[in-house]
Amino acid sequence: MKPPVYTGKPLSVLDLDIENRPLSYAGQDFTFSEITAIACCTVGKRRSLECWMLGEVEPEVLLDGFLSRWHEADMVTGHNIIRHDLTMLDGMCLEYGRGPLGPKLVQDTYGHLKRSKGVSRSQESLAAMLGVAAPKLHMTQRDWREANRLLPEGLVKTRARVVGDVLQHMELRKRLIELQWLGVPRTWTP
């Protein structure tokens, strides 16, 4: 696939986040993970927010629901999605017999944040520092165990966490752009 080309029309930007759990172990305590939830929303269109979760849908439904949104978007954004979310999604594509995600413009509020020292680059810390109103859901070890075991009470918390992260991130990205702290989008290629 060829990298996306800017056509002059406003870009459709998809904000995304995933949650994952440990699945199996390899040597040296290396852990393989699986995606348990995906949330995404087209920036500027809050009603477009969608969330798919294991325990509610089969993995293929979760993946295909997200892929339809991926293919519609001109650009994707999230926090640390270059090193984490996108590579996890590509691994899931391979596991379920789908092609790789393909080239896409990406603006990562972790990876494309301009250099600084002495401050945390976590989404939660940046949001608090910059006065972003949308909160991040904290989860205890017990909460994560319920979530990772796909228990009903865990699924409620997982949904709140993954959706909350997308809503917080949309506000954070807007603020970082206003303050000129975010670098330009770049084409990501698997």
Spatial sequence of strands, sheet with the most strands: 3-2-1-4-5-6
Distance, first to last CA? 11 Å
Give the total of domains: 1
The major pleated sheet works out as: 6 strands, mixed
CATH architecture classification: 2-Layer Sandwich
Helix and strand sequence: EEEHEHEHHHE
Total helices: the number is: 5
Radius of gyration: 16 Å
What's a concise summary of this model?
With 190 residues, this protein is an alpha/beta fold. Helices cover 37% and strands 22% of the residues.
Key structural traits:
190 residues, Nucleotidyltransferase, domain 5, 6 strands, 37% helix, 22% strand, globular
Task: Summarize the topology.
Elements: E1 13-25, E2 31-42, E3 50-53, H1 59-72, E4 75-78, H2 81-95, E5 104-108, H3 123-129, H4 141-148, H5 152-178, E6 186-188
Parallel strand pairs: 1-4, 4-5
Antiparallel strand pairs: 1-2, 2-3, 5-6
Helix pairs in contact: 3-5, 4-5
Describe the structure.
The chain is of the alpha/beta class and 190 residues long. It has a single domain, classed as Nucleotidyltransferase, domain 5. The chain is built from 5 helices and 6 strands; from the N terminus they run E-E-E-H-E-H-E-H-H-H-E. A hairpin with a 7-residue loop joins strand 2 (31-42) and strand 3. The protein is globular and about 40 Å long. The mean pLDDT is 94.
